[in-house]
Design goal:
heterodimer; A: 545 residues; mainly alpha; 77% helix; globular; B: alpha/beta; four-stranded antiparallel β-sheet; 9 helices; binds adenosine-5'-triphosphate; binds magnesium ion
Chain lengths: 545, 241
C-alpha cells in the first residue's frame, strides 16, 4: 500500500471514529467498561450458540456444515452492514470537499475509503466470527494450520461482500441521484436492514417445539440453502473448503478471486463514484416552488412549538434513526417474532396457552412484567435526553424568545411522550393479541405507561439541561458518545425494580391493588419533579448561553 | 427604551467581561456599540436579551426588568444574534411563520410583513427551501426578517451587517433609521466605524468590559484629538476592517 493511501486511510478512520479527547478520563473508563461488557456478552452469546450447533451436528458427523452456514452468515451480515457503512463513508461523510483538492488519484481516495470500511468490518468479525471459529477448532480437534488458514480466510473473505454492497450503493446513488434527497435516502438503508432482519428471523423461527431431530432437519435444510447459494456466490465454496480441509490451494483460489474483484471494483468505482459524489457536494438543489403567502396558517404557541420539534426530528435522518426508530421498531421486531413463534404452534395448543397466559398476566406480577418490557423500550427513546443538545449552538434561541422556560421544557418533552405512547400502544396490542386480556386491564396498563413516560421525559430533559452537548458540528456527536444516554437505561432499570418490589409482596392480590399503589406513588413523583422544574426553571437554563 | 444600570458579568471568577456598565438608550435613538474583539459587546447584548444573567445590576426594557419580568420584556425585543444559527431543517417560510406564532403576530399583518421583508432582502423566492441550502448571508437575512416580524419596539442586533451584501446592508440601515424615526430604539454592535458614523445618533465604546466613551460621533472625534489612549483604541477598531 503506498504512503498516500495509508495516511489518507488513517485520517478518514480518525474522522469516522470521532473521539472527544477533551472528555474526562473517568468518562472514557466508563465507556470502555460499558463496551467491554457489551462486547463480552455478544461474544459469549455467539460462543454458546455455535457450541450447541456444532455439538448437535457432531452427532451425525456433519459438523463441517457449520462452517458453511457460519461463513454465509458472515457474508450476509457484512453485506448489510457494508451498505450502511458505504453510504456513510462514501457519500455522507462530507469530507470529499477537503480531499478532492489534494493531489491524490481517484483510485487512492477510493481505496482509502474502502479501507476504512474494511477495518470496521474486521472489528465486527472480531466480535462475531473469531469465537465460533475457535470453538469449531476446539470441538473438532484440528491442527494449527486450521487456525492459520481460518485467520487468513477471515482477512480475505469480507472484501468481496463489501465490494458488492459498495457497488450496489454506488449504483443506487448514481441512478436515483440519492444525493438530491439525501435525508430521505439515509433512512432507506437502516429501514431495509431492519426489514431484512425481520424477514430472516421470521424465516428462521418456524416451529418452536425444539426436538433435536427437528433441529437437525432444519440445519440440514439450511445447509442445502448454503450449497445452493455457494454455487452462485463464488467465494463461498473456496472459503468453506479452505477452512474445513485446511486446504492452501482453496485459499489461493479465494485470494485470486478476491484480487480480481478488487481490481474490478477500482475500475468500476472510479467511473461511477466521483460522478455521483461530486454532484452530492452541491446539495442545494433548488426546487423553485413559489410559496403562496396566503396559505400561511397561524397556530397557538404550544402547538407550533411541538410541530417545529417534530419536523426537525423527522427531517434529520441521524436524529430520527437514533432517537426515535429503535423504540418504535424494537417492540414490533421482538414481540412480532415472539407472536410468530407462538402462533406457529398447533392451533389447539394456542388457545389453551392464550387463556393460561391471559389469566397469568392479569395479576400484579404480570403487570410488573408489562411495565418492565415497556420501560426497556422507553430506555431506547432518546428524544428527551437530547432535547436541548439537538439544537446545538442555536439553543440560545430558547432564552431570548418570550416563552417561559418551563413551558418550553414541556413542549420539548411532548414528542418524547408521543413516541413513547406509540411504543406503549404497540406493546399493549401484542399483549392483547397473545393473551386476550380484558380491556380494563389494558386501559390501566396504558395509564401507568403514560405516567411512566412522562416521568422519564421530564427526568431526561433535566439530565440534558444539566449537561447539554451544544458545541457540535455533526449530528453524530449528539447521539454517539454522549454519556447522558446511559441515564434512560438507569431510570428504566430503577423503574423495573420499583415495579417488582411493589408487585412481589402483592402477588396474591388483585392487579387493581398493585395498579393503585403504583400509580399513586408515581403521580406523587411526577408532581414533585414538575414542581422542581417549575421553581428552578431559570437556574436550569444557566448552562445554555 | 433600554436601560442598563451598573451591570457586571464575569464568566470566570475575578475576571469581569463586563464591568459596571451604565447606559441608557432612549426611544427614537440609534445606538452603535463599538469595541475591539473580546471587549464584551456580545456579552452585554446577551444580558440585555436575557440569554445571560448579569451578576450585578439591572436591565430594563421599556421599564420591565429582564430578569423579573422576562417574558413581557422579551416580547418587546427583536434580537439578531452574531451567528445566524437557526433551525436549518425548517424551510424559510416555516421559520418565519413559527416566529410569527411565537410572537403572536396576527395573520394578515404577518402575511404582509413576511412578503415585505423577504422581498426587500431578495429571499422571497427561497422561502420554500430548507434553510440548510441558504448561504451565510441569506441565513443572516432570514434571521433579521424573523426578528423584525413582530415589529418589536426595541431592536438589538449583534454585528448585523457582517455577511450582508452592500444592497442588503443599505436596506437594513434604512430600516433601522425608519424604525428609530417612528420613536423606537435600535441598539447594535459593529466593527465598522463608517457605519457608526453615518447611522448612529450616539455611540458607545467598550474595551475590556469597561465603557470608556459615550456620546455622538462628533464628540468622539473631538475627544480623540486630545486623548491618546482612545485614539489607539480607535485605530485598533479600524484596523479590524
Ligand atoms: N462562554 C464564555 N466563557 C468564558 N469566557 C467568555 C465566554 N464568552 C465570552 N467570554 C469572554 O468574555 C469577553 C468578552 O467577550 P464578548 O464575546 O462579549 O466580546 P465581543 O466584544 O462580542 O467580541 P467580538 O468583537 O469578537 O464579537 C472575552 O474576553 C471572552 O474571552
Ligand atoms: Mg461579539
Amino acid at each position: 500500500m503506498n504512503k498516500k493511501i495509508f495516511s489518507l486511510t488513517k485520517v478518514l478512520l480518525k474522522n469516522s471514529f470521532q473521539r472527544y479527547d477533551n472528555k474526562k478520563q473517568r468518562n472514557k473508563v466508563a465507556t470502555a467498561i460499558l463496551y467491554i461488557i457489551v462486547f463480552g456478552y455478544v461474544m459469549a452469546l455467539f460462543g454458546v450458540f455455535s457450541f450447541q450447533i456444532i455439538n448437535t451436528l457432531k452427532q451425525i458427523n456433519q459438523e463441517s456444515i457449520f462452517i458453511g452456514m457460519f461463513l454465509m452468515g458472515v457474508a450476509l451480515f457484512i453485506i448489510i452492514q457494508g451498505m450502511v457503512s458505504a453510504t456513510n463513508v462514501f457519500y455522507f461523510s462530507r469530507d470529499l470537499e477537503y480531499i478532492l483538492p489534494l493531489p491524490l488519484k481517484p483510485r487512492e481516495i477510493l481505496i482509502s475509503k474502502l479501507n476504512v470500511i474494511l477495518i470496521t468490518e474486521y472489528i465486527v468479525e472480531l466480535l462475531f466470527a473469531v469465537v465460533p471459529i475457535i470453538i469449531y477448532g476446539v470441538l473438532t480437534a484440528v491442527g494449527i494450520q486450521y487456525y492459520i488458514i481460518s485467520f487468513l480466510v477471515l482477512l480475505i473473505f469480507p472484501i468481496i461482500p463489501l465490494i458488492i454492497s459498495t457497488i450496489i450503493i454506488m449504483i443506487i446513488m448514481s441512478f436515483t441521484k440519492g444525493a438530491k434527497n439525501k435525508d430521505r435516502f439515509q433512512l432507506i438503508v437502516p429501514i431495509l436492514g431492519i426489514i431484512l432482519a425481520f424477514a430472516i428471523s421470521f424465516a428462521s423461527t418456524g416451529s418452536s417445539d425444539i426436538s433435536e431431530k427437528e433441529v437437525l432437519e432444519k440445519l440440514l435444510q439450511a445447509n442445502q440453502m448454503v450449497e445452493l447459494i455457494s454455487d452462485k456466490f463464488i467465494i463461498l465454496k473456496p472459503a468453506i473448503n479452505a477452512i474445513i480441509n485446511s486446504n492452501i490451494l482453496e485459499l489461493l483460489k479465494l485470494a485470486i478471486i478476491t484480487i480480481i474483484g478488487y481490481l474490478a471494483f477500482i475500475l468500476i468505482g472510479s467511473k461511477i463514484y466521483f460522478r455521483g459524489a461530486i454532484g452530492n457536494l452541491s446539495s442545494g438543489n433548488k426546487t423553485k416552488k413559489k410559496i403562496k403567502i396566503n396559505s400561511i396558517k397561524t397556530r397557538k404557541i404550544g402547538k407550533t412549538y411541538v410541530i417545529k420539534e417534530i419536523k426537525i426530528l423527522f427531517r434529520n435522518p441521524i436524529f430520527f434513526v437514533q432517537c426515535v426508530l429503535p423504540s418504535v421498531f424494537m417492540p414490533i421486531l421482538v414481540l412480532g417474532i415472539a407472536i410468530f413463534t407462538i402462533s406457529s404452534n398447533e392451533s389447539n395448543d394456542l388457545q389453551a396457552i392464550t387463556s393460561i397466559l391471559g389469566s397469568l398476566v392479569q395479576s400484579p406480577i404480570g403487570m410488573a412484567v408489562i411495565i418492565a418490557v415497556t420501560e426497556f423500550m422507553y430506555s431506547m427513546l432518546y428524544i428527551a435526553p437530547t432535547a436541548i443538545s439537538r439544537d446545538g449552538s442555536n439553543a440560545i434561541f430558547m432564552k431570548y424568545i418570550p416563552v417561559s422556560y418551563y413551558k418550553q421544557i414541556i413542549y420539548k418533552g411532548i414528542p418524547n411522550v408521543i413516541f413513547g405512547t406509540i411504543t406503549s400502544i404497540i406493546i399493549l396490542i401484542f399483549v392483547y393479541l397473545v393473551m386476550r386480556v380484558s380491556f380494563v386491564f389494558l386501559a390501566i396498563c396504558f395509564v401507568i405507561n403514560l405516567i411512566l413516560i412522562i416521568i422519564q421525559t421530564l427526568l431526561m430533559e433535566l439530565v440534558d439541561l444539566k449537561k447539554p452537548k451544544l458545541d457540535w458540528s455533526t449530528e453524530y456527536a449528539v447521539v454517539k458518545q454522549n454519556l447522558n444516554l446511559l441515564w434512560p437505561f438507569v431510570v428504566g432499570l430503577l423503574e423495573i425494580m420499583v415495579a417488582f418490589v411493589i408487585a412481589i409482596p402483592l402477588k396474591n392480590n388483585s392487579y387493581f391493588v398493585f395498579a393503585g399503589i403504583f400509580t399513586i406513588i408515581h403521580i406523587i413523583i411526577t408532581y414533585f419533579i414538575n414542581r422542581y422544574i417549575y421553581k428552578k426553571q431559570n437556574e436550569l437554563f444557566d448552562k445554555i448561553m | 427604551m433600554i436601560k442598563i444600570e451598573n451591570v457586571s458579568k464575569s464568566y470566570v471568577k475575578g475576571k469581569k467581561s463586563v464591568d459596571t456598565l451604565d447606559l441608557e438608550i432612549k426611544d427614537g435613538e440609534i445606538f452603535g456599540f463599538l469595541g475591539p474583539n473580546g471587549a464584551g459587546k456580545t456579552t452585554t447584548i446577551k444580558m440585555i436579551t436575557g440569554i445571560l444573567n448579569s451578576d450585578e445590576g439591572h436591565i430594563l426594557i421599556d421599564g420591565k426588568d429582564i430578569k423579573k419580568e422576562g417574558i413581557s420584556a422579551k416580547k418587546n425585543i427583536g434580537f439578531v444574534p452574531d451567528t445566524p444559527d437557526i433551525f436549518l431543517k425548517l424551510k424559510g417560510i416555516e421559520y418565519l411563520n413559527f416566529m410569527g406564532d411565537i410572537y403572536e403576530v396576527q395573520a394578515d399583518i404577518r402575511k404582509r410583513r413576511i412578503e415585505e421583508l423577504t422581498k426587500k432582502f431578495g429571499i422571497f423566492d427561497n422561502l420554500n427551501e430548507e434553510m440548510q441550502s441558504y448561504s451565510h448571508g441569506m441565513r443572516q437575512k432570514i434571521v433579521i426578517c424573523g426578528a423584525l416580524l413582530s415589529n418589536p419596539k426595541n431592536w438589538i442586533l449583534d454585528e448585523p451587517m457582517t455577511g450582508l451584501d452592500p444592497k442588503a446592508s443599505f436596506d437594513l440601515k434604512e430600516m433601522m433609521r425608519k424604525h428609530a424615526k417612528e420613536g423606537n430604539c435600535v441598539f447594535f454592535s459593529t466593527h465598522v466605524l463608517d457605519v457608526a458614523e453615518k447611522l448612529c445618533d450616539r455611540v458607545g465604546i467598550i474595551n475590556k468590559g469597561k465603557l470608556i466613551f459615550v456620546g455622538t460621533f462628533e464628540d468622539m472625534k473631538a475627544k480623540l484629538k486630545d486623548n491618546g489612549s482612545l485614539e489607539d483604541l480607535f485605530l485598533e477598531i479600524t484596523q479590524d476592517e
